[in-house]
Write the structure tokens for this entry.
Amino acid sequence: MFDTGEPYARGELVAALRELEVAGMANLASMPGVEFFEAQGSAWSPAEHVRHLAKSARPVARALDVPRIVLAFRFGLHRGRSPSFADLRGRYLAQLAAGATAGRFTPTRRSLPGDLDVGRDATLSEWRDANRALEAALAGWAERSLDRYRLPHPVLGPLTLREMMMFTVYHSSHHLRRIAERRGGVPASAARDGRGIEAIALHSDTKRSAGT
């Protein structure tokens, strides 16, 4: 469930993100509103996971609309091909295992909506809209430019635009899996990410007392 494969080309990354969104919507849109907004034990609620994904995608979309000369001046340029999806995934999981947190991308607390089902749908729409904005911004970039320009990541450091999109894909899969696992919706045999990498590192969402 929520498998990503190892997308690399721009079209593959966009398609992978779309597929995850469709699968995530199918899983979450039918979830009762009370469950959607309820914490999963000591971890984030499904609503907070979704809001975290939207909050993480929006700044990437905005950055892709920044003039390229500004990106080059602020973050430098990368030479050569971007690392693989598997490499990016491995680095991210290593950071999680080392205790990386969501930091400023932790979803802020919100009051419960009066109608929980309507609130669920509105939260899912925020995520969908953030993904569409990201796709639209990405459409203006040539394939080779994705390997040349860079953006800062709060945990992984400087990433090429291609790596940032790979992160967005894997990050979406990671959080959708967490929701499903805590609902009992992901069998044990599917608890491994990619080619046998064990996703045993829990995100900072596992400790609400830490603000996440």
